[in-house]
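step: validate -> pass
step: tokenize input -> pass
step: predict -> running
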Amino acid sequence: MTDLIASDEDLRRFNSLPNKGKRLTSALRGVLAEAATTGIVRYNWLLLKPLVLYVLDSVLQDFDAESKVEIGPPLPLANDNSLADLQSRLHGYVNCFTEAPFTFQRLCELLVEPHKQYTYLHKVALAFERLLLVVKTQPVTGNLPPRPRIAELRPVNENIAVSHPVRPPDTHQRVPLEPLFHIDTEAQPAAEPMSIDTAPVMLSTESQAQTHAVDQGPARGVAPAQHSHAVKTEENGTSQPAHTSPIKTESQAQASKVLGQSKAGLLNKVHALEAANVPANGTEVMKVDGS
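step: predict -> pass
step: emit ->
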């Protein structure tokens, strides 16, 4: 029956012919098309190898003839100086296999429809080289179906829409999952800006707190700071008012507090020595006005 793909007898008859007498019929092409569309290895590799070599040479010759028509310098071949060298090198790869290579399906796709993806000889030559530089092979497919008709073969190297069964709607009730943590997205009230009128009120509150601490005296060896009091010196008897800014920063307040604690502690020790009438280092005690 001529409408089926070639049989093993057809392959043996094709292999016995000389190269000049060989012709690629639709039945022989159907053998490669079946492998390209289904991945089936129907015949032994010894029967398939002459057909693969013949089609490989035909594809390379067609691309080489098309590349010579183009204007400009010829494109370089992949590690070869001529088309004959390229064919000889690829033939050596094919002859190394004792069974069909693992990439036989993709190889048949490229042999049957090479122009669908490649335009230049050096591109298709590199593609053949990658497919033949494999080690793994595959045997003849078991439980083979009958030979298909040529008209029933799908187009090679084309995406065919496959009809999938319609999935029934999900009737199970889904329970919403609670989030692991809650993020408060509500806007927080903005802090009121400080005005010039409220700054003296805060400063006076700080001064009252320091005055109250001085009246209470030192607690646990720590004396309060005296920032706003005038400091009198024994030598000239004059008082020098402390210069303070209207609004103190936090670092200035801490420095003034430490200085006031040191002065208060020193005054307390001097007063204690005066009360006991104990001279300091054999000399009279210098009176210091603590006001």
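step: describe -> The radius of gyration is 51 Å.
step: cleanup -> pass
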